[in-house]
Amino acid sequence: MPDHPLERLYDDHASALFAFAVNLTRSESEARDVLQEVFLKLARRGALPSGLREERGYLLRMVHHAVVDALRRRDVRSRAEDEVRADLPVFAPTPNPDEQAFRTQLSAALGELPPDQRAVVHLKLWEGLTFERIAETLDIPPNTAASRYRYGLDKLRDRLRPLYEELQ
Amino acid sequence: MNSSQSHPPDGDSPDALERRIASQPFRPLPSDWKHVLLPPVTSPASGLSALREFLTPSRWVWGTLAALWVLVAGFGFAAERTARSGISLVHPDAPRGSDRMEEWRQRQELISLLLDDRMPGDRQPAAPPRPRSDLRAVRHGRRSLLRISRRRLPRISHES
Predict the structure, then answer these.
(1) Which residues of A touch B38 (CB under 8 A)?
(2) Per residue in B43-56, pLDDT tens?
(3) Residue A30 and residue A97 share a domain
(4) CATH number of A109's domain
(5) Rg (CA), chain A
(6) Does A108 lie in the same domain as A82?
(7) Based on the domain organization, do A6 and A78 belong to the same domain?
(8) What's the whole-number average pLDDT of chain B?
(9) Which chain B residue's Cα is nearest to A131?
(10) A80 near A40, Cβ under 8 Å?
């Protein structure tokens, strides 16, 4: 049992927050910086706000804000690194070659999506949030969340369909 | 207007490709990040460990201070014992303080007498200081005299 509430939050949510951060930043070091910033803010506040409906959604929102700041700083630094980062594998490696090929192509296809669409697709597919919850997390209208998801998913389908049918 | 306020449906039921995409696991969180990401947390039950953390960085300083304290305490204890037993730390044949003062005063008087004897004969009376304007006038006067004398001196012609 974790002794401190912060430790409990880490054990429960850090993996999901890391996946969201690494998918948006495409950089493990930046994802670490983002998570560090989030947990530092939580430590300074002492506790999560009272009356919180869902911890995960609140923490994902904090991560998104930190990622937006990090991407803004990166835009100032250099844009050339983004092209390299698009190929960063964000999925776990697997010994199955077919599965590995699918994951590699999916990772690349996600990297080609605009960050706004990628955030919505991630929250919908890997966090299972509704468009309403996604809208609250990302500070956008629900309809915008839905349209971004459809655009993003169509791009992923176009990119992955040939390999997917070949693997079937 | 109502359509903009109503929430969009959460999409059609996911197809096989969508489900397969969603089933892909992200890379795992590095296990050693927990100590890096979580800021140090102090719990009230860890008073002893907090004291240890306070002492550990300056172990040598605390050790030196403890040794000094032991030394001072030992010296104080020894001094107290000698005072009780009546043993004097001063040599019995050593001159007393008042005798030393008397000897020092006599030497001072002798030195002052020797100095006073030399002063009247050896020293020349010092000339009173002159104002700077006088010094400038003297220098200027010498230069002007030199110029005048150079002009008035007749030139020696080599032809004659």
Answers:
(1) 6-7, 10, 39, 43
(2) 444 556 556 666 66
(3) no
(4) 1.10.10.10
(5) 17
(6) no
(7) yes
(8) 72
(9) B10
(10) no
Q: How many CB pairs under 8 A join A and B?
A: 88
Last residue of a domain, one of A48, A73, A88: A88
More confident residue, A39 or A81: A39
Confidence at residue B157, expressed as pLDDT on a 0 to 100 scale: 54
Yes or no, beta carbons of B26 and A43 under 8 Å apart: no
| Each residue's pLDDT tens digit, A109-123 | 999 999 999 999 999
Is a pLDDT exceeding 80 seen at residue B106? yes
ipTM: 0.84
For residue A74, give its domain range.
1-88
For residue A4, what is the nearest residue in chain B, using CA coordinates?
Answer: B41
For residue B33, with 0-12 CB atoms within 10 Å meaning exposed, 13-18 middle and 19 or more buried, which class applies? Answer: middle
Last residue of a domain, which of A88, A112, A140? A88
**pLDDT for residue B115:** 85
User: What's the longest Cα–Cα distance across chain A?
Assistant: 52
Clarify whether residues A74 and A95 are in a common domain.
no
The neighbour count for residue A49, using CB atoms within 10 Å, is 7
Residue with tokens 């401190």: A4
